[in-house]
Amino acid sequence: MSRNAKINALLLFVVAALAVLPLALGLGDHKEEPFTGADSEAETAITEIRPDYEPWFSPLYEPPSGEIESALFALQAALGAGVLAYYFGLHRGRRQGELRALAQRDTTTSTTSTTSTTSTAAKTSTTARTSRSSEKTGNTGNTGNAARSHPSESASEASAPERT
What we know:
This protein is mostly helical. The protein has helices at about 5-25, 40-50, 65-135, 155-160. The protein is built from 4 helices and no strands. The chain is elongated, with a radius of gyration of 42 Å.
């Protein structure tokens, strides 16, 4: 079992324990509504401490029943989870795209540098062969006419001075 699989299994166990333990231990049995939200519990505690307390704000929308309120809360949680999943997915995709682009660029760069290294080696080899062949023929190439180095031209044409 890989390390990531072990971590995922442990996280799944912790989430299941958080969901099951309150029910198994009987937490909230002494209350009329055992698993109500913290808002209603806070309101009850405040009115017990200070009965003349006036809230600063009132809700913009008061749902007609607790079921509708729960449904709206679930919808809000689902939308929030969707936005977070989109954000993390988008950034992961961008990161993967950047890594692919870098890998492709590195591959292209290494191919180009290999090609240029090969090309440079070929040019050096050609230059060395040309200089060896000129030494054998006695042609030093210092005629002032470097542009005439085509093989079809004769040696006398290459050594003749250029007329302008």
